[in-house]
Amino acid sequence: MKFFRFISYFSQLRALIGFKAASAFTLAHLWNKLHPPREGTLAHVPVGTYVFYFPSLTYFEGLFTEIFFKETYYLTPTQESIRVIDCGANIGVSLLYIKIRAPHARVLCFEPNPAARAVLEKNIAENDWEKDVQVFPYALGKEKGTAEFFVEDANATSSGGSVANYLEKKGRVLTTYTVGVDTLSQYIDSAIDLLKIDIEGPEFDILEELIAQKKLQSVSCIQLEYHYIPGFFTRPLSEMLATLEKEGFRTFVQSIAQPHQILDTDTAHTYMIFGWRS
Questions:
Q1: Does residue 107 contact residue 86 with C-beta atoms inside 8 Å?
Q2: pLDDT tens digit string along 204-234?
Q3: CATH no. for 74-276
Q4: Burial readout 156-166 (b: 16 or more C-beta within 10 A, e: otherwise)
Q5: What are the structural domain ranges in the chain?
């Protein structure tokens, strides 16, 4: 079974970056499996013409599989200088995907977790992306201010960091940061080709702030991870879809969980929402 999954993943990677680059990636990945990075150090792999750094092999495998192989996000290949906003950029795997699909993309990245942001900034510097990628250290919300930001202590760069401390209810030990909160609308002054949002809960806050400032109409495509988290974020998926459709988007939804994990329970779950204008 693992062999067939490997063949499938290699074929997908070859389609994305070519046979030679896919082979180089595979060999480097196997080396990292045999020689995993020591705590406090970064491993790296070549991905096409780029190099990507990460602190944990297991963590990188999960993100890379999700974004590159399972198409958590989708971007049509282009050589145009498209404009993209990446909310919740983490260590930069989504940014890597964007730059492979659209090498000349101009990207605004928002990442409040300082540990993840340090790796993101290293990846930007190592690939000479500074001229068209900017990083902002903010969480995003309905108004400017500050907030407590919670990250699992065992995984400093975790993509599960949130302004809600829901992980504490699961018995996780958390690291807490006080972070700045900003509004997204002020960063939109022209057409946005893709708005990607993965911020672990307050997705409605971003959308409603953009709508109030009449800036969501500047977005052509939106791809976001909707979170239902009991006790914290409980507005229904139907309301999210209605909000987007009222703003002129067609929508497609993909569940990340299986039905038995959601039906007849009140448990946290997520959906990927893809919105585009006709």
A1: yes
A2: 999 999 999 999 999 999 999 999 998 899 9
A3: 3.40.50.150
A4: bbbbebbbbeb
A5: 1-70, 74-276
